[in-house]
Here is the input.
Amino acid sequence: MEHNPLISKDNGLEITYSDLKKKKNGEEYITMYFEQPTADGHGFDSAECDYPYGDFRNIIGFTQTEIKSLWEYVAKLGQTAFDFSKEDALAKIC
Here is the structure.
């Protein structure tokens, strides 16, 4: 499963997304990944969220306040990442 780059922020936050996935019922989704260097520079905070209907999981280092701000990125960029992933999946078929 690839991590396709989506956006890099000045504060070091990197947002990537997965290839298109399918649930057993056929619904399509992607996983969005969030990673940011820790304040001490000796590691990374990370989290992931399935789009369009997932919650954050595998949260390491991010506070609940920071997770709330990451939801803003999911809301603003999730559909774009989902569309990119769908286009990539179609391109691989052709």
